Amino acid sequence: MEIEKLAEYANHTLTWIGFGTLVGLSAKAIMPGRDPGGTVATLMMGIAGTLIGCAILRFFYPTMNIQPISLEGFSVGAGGAFILLLFYKVLGGYWFTEGEQITYRHRRRRRVVPTIIDE
């Protein structure tokens, strides 16, 4: 009995990891620009986005029963992960900076070597 329960938990965990990765990758593909985070951040964003998206849908439509691992759950999860990524970029200062300090990036200038042509 314990082995079956453990196998069921392992199956759910691996399913959520795979589903969260797909949802996180799809949200990163939708969002324009360079996205922060690596593999684990994408996975966690996908799982959290699915939970948030399903919770928002459940809040607005209480009679609608949606399974997270379905086509509807995938689209709602990708939307939730997109919202998470958008908040992360806005709050992380990707588009806006706080304060009035202007920073300039230093560019490397190419060294111009004069060429001498002998006639």
Count of DSSP strands: 0
Q: What is the count of distinct domains?
A: 1
Detail the poorly predicted runs.
none
Q: What's the Cα radius of gyration?
A: 23 Å
Q: Tell me the series of helices and strands, N- to C-terminal.
A: HHH
Main sheet overview: none
Span between termini: 95 Å
User: What general form does the structure show?
Assistant: elongated
Mean pLDDT: 76
Number of helices: 3
Query: Strand share of the residues?
Result: under 5%
Give the helix proportion (percent range): 55-70%
What structural class do helix, strand and pairing data support?
Answer: mainly alpha
Commentary on this structure:
The structure is a single chain. The chain is mainly α and about 120 residues long. It has one domain. Helix content is about 60%, strand content about 0%. The protein contains three helices and no strands. It has helices at about 1-30, 40-60, 70-90. Helix 1 packs across helix 2 and helix 2 packs across helix 3. The termini are far apart.
